[in-house]
Amino acid sequence: MIAMEEARERARKLSPTKQGPRISDSGAMKWSLEAELPEASQSRTMDEKNITLIDNLDIQIDDFTVKVRIIRLWSQLLFKDPEQLYSIEMILMDEEGSKIHANVLQKWIPKFKKLLHEGAAIFIKNPTIARHVSKYKLIDNTNN
């Protein structure tokens, strides 16, 4: 398991690009991380005042950064082929205790699997948000 500090440093500048999190009317969100891993030579400093809390996420704004801790992590297998991994599912929590459901889809698992561990603190920068319409919700948030 990667040490907490090492995981935080390696994940500090995750930058999802195209398909990002999907947020439901109840606030349940799924993240599809699509980013390049940060290079070791890049600066790891982050301006703390630019962090957006989960309760303040807005589907019409795509220029923000969230700082979260992975409090629960599990794998979702393909329905038609239980030998294949479909996604990595997570519950993320911000510093105020707000929680959100997130996932990394199959094509992005090789890039992010080593960074994602229960207890890891990560920054996710500039994700795209859309409504999540599934009836199955793991987290009941109040934001839209």
Automatic annotation (TrEMBL):
Residues 53-139 form the Replication protein A 70 kDa DNA-binding subunit B/D first OB fold domain. SUPFAM superfamilies: Nucleic acid-binding proteins. It holds the Pfam family DUF223. InterPro entries: NA-bd_OB-fold, RFA1B/D_OB_1st. It comes from the Eukaryota. PANTHER family: OS03G0429900 PROTEIN. This is Replication protein A 70 kDa DNA-binding subunit B/D first OB fold domain-containing protein. The lineage of its organism: Eukaryota, Viridiplantae, Streptophyta, Embryophyta, Tracheophyta.
